[in-house]
Specification:
Number of helices: 6
Number of strands: 4
Largest sheet: 2 strands, antiparallel
Strand order of the largest sheet: 1-2
Strand content: 5-15%
Helix content: 25-40%
């Protein structure tokens, strides 16, 4: 099977990891963790505005922003772009030092700073040629409510061992409380 983009171009998914043989989305608990996390994140991102448009227009005129069509970066620190601003991002990434921030938590912020400071691709700078093969036959990703329902189906919770990683081998270490007045009222904020 091939790699495909879902909802937004940029993040690519191995078809066999997210789709059944019938071409439907697999249950979330059957997907590997990384593609599942990206897919869940996409349900939120797919209707967000382009970051570059937002930097130009701001919250006061968010309705003038184009909807994102492309996602770059890592979940939680992703950069959303419309087709018009993809060339600006690619120029920053390829020619203006953006590649140095790949995988870094400051990736998105560095692009924002560059773009807000007037950084733009030169006229005619080419973007990527995206190949779309039969996008109408791709199933729509589940909406956020469906994702939430699927995540909570059969979820029994998980135990977290708060002592994991402690050096205390037997857990019986005494704490010296001499000189501590437990009856003292301490100021609160």
């Amino acid at each position: 099977m091939a790699k495909v983009s879902i909802g937004l171009r940029g993040w690519r998914f191995e078809e066999s990891e997210v789709f059944t043989e019938d071409g439907e989305f697999k249950p979330l608990d059957e997907m590997p963790e990384e593609p599942r996390d990206r897919l869940v994140r996409l349900t939120y991102l797919v209707e967000q505005p382009c970051d570059a448009c937002y930097l130009v227009h701001g919250e006061a005129a968010v309705e003038q922003c184009r909807q994102a069509a492309i996602v770059y970066g890592e979940p939680g620190d992703e950069l959303l772009l419309c087709g018009t601003h993809e060339a600006d991002f690619l120029y920053w990434y390829r020619e203006a030092g953006g590649k140095a921030y790949r995988g870094e938590p400051t990736f998105r912020d560095r692009f924002h700073e560059w773009f807000a400071g007037g950084g733009r691709a030169p006229d005619g700078y080419g973007g990527l040629d995206h190949v779309e093969t039969d996008p109408e036959n791709m199933p729509d990703p589940p909406d956020p409510e469906e994702i939430h329902r699927r995540l909570n189906d059969n979820f029994e919770g998980r135990r977290i061992d708060m002592r994991e990683g402690w050096d205390d081998e037997d857990g019986d270490e005494e704490i010296d409380l001499d000189g501590v007045d437990l009856g003292t009222d301490y100021p609160s904020r």
